[in-house]
Design brief:
alpha+beta, 18 strands
């Protein structure tokens, strides 16, 4: 704020941090006029504001304090309101909504022994990787099943092959979390993985001989379904990875599985 001659009001010069603030306010106003929920749009508005104030030779301008505050409030109102409306769009367009997950995952990987991925799909076999620096042997136990011997890849990195049934039966699977006990050179550590159970996905409908019922299987949930013409639904738990169902009579359905050469028969009432 410059000292004004006696009898004249004090004024403010647009220089230094005041000029930078003026550029930000003008950039916000320009962006609010044509809002786009991306950082690129903000950068373009910022550069346009610099060019505009440069063309007006803003550094030679002087404003009374009250006028400067009033202009700042007016210029800030629109971009603040627009930003509040577009917060979710910003997060989606710039992938900011993934930030907490990425930070949590990075912290989990640094907390050794670590296991990755931390998401378990309960409908299939999976390959996990564990990092236990300095360890020569590692086992992983999912729920109450027997420990699985991991394959050492060197430098403390291990590969863990898990059959779908072991994950499916693990305690806590239905609640959305599975505790995995990693034992590195005889020292156990528990890690919690997020569990996701997919919804049934019946496909390839097979009609009964009398055409009053159809059968189908869901490989995602290891189930077989029989739907009658009056809307009654029968549901059966199959072995791992059913791939097809076929009526062998009006009262029996045979189910084939991906990992087996044998058929499993289910009796149908009625």
């Amino acid at each position: 704020m410059a000292a004004a001659p006696r009898g004249e009001p004090a004024t403010i010069a647009l220089s230094g941090w005041r000029l930078q603030l003026a550029v930000i306010l003008v950039a916000g106003a320009l962006w609010a006029a044509y809002p786009s929920a991306t950082f690129g749009a903000l950068v373009v508005a910022y550069l346009l504001a610099w060019a505009l104030l440069g063309a007006l030779d803003a550094t030679r301008r002087r404003l009374e304090p009250r006028l400067a505050i009033g202009l700042a409030v007016v210029l800030a109102a629109a971009p603040i309101a627009r930003a509040a409306q577009l917060t979710r769009d910003f997060a989606e367009n710039e992938a900011l909504d993934a930030g907490p997950h990425l930070i949590e995952s990075a912290i989990a990987l640094e907390d050794t022994p670590a296991i990755f991925p931390r998401l378990v799909s309960l409908d299939r076999a999976q390959t996990f990787y564990a990092h236990a620096p300095g360890a020569s042997r590692l086992t992983a136990r999912f729920g109450a099943d027997d420990p699985i011997e991991a394959t050492s890849l060197g430098h403390g990195l291990f590969r863990i092959e898990v059959h779908g049934d072991a994950i499916h039966r693990a305690e806590g699977a239905d609640a959305g979390a599975i505790d995995v006990v990693l034992t590195a050179d005889g020292s156990p550590t528990t890690r919690t993985l997020r569990a996701v159970r997919p919804l049934p996905h019946p496909r390839a409908l097979s009609p009964s001989p009398d055409r009053t019922r159809v059968a189908a299987v869901s490989e995602e949930t290891d189930e077989a379904f029989v739907l009658s013409e009056d809307g009654e639904l029968a549901q059966f738990d199959t072995d791992d990875a059913p791939i097809g169902a076929q009526f062998v009579s009006d009262s029996a359905v045979a189910v084939a599985h991906r990992g087996s050469t044998r058929l499993r028969l289910f009796g149908i009432d009625g």
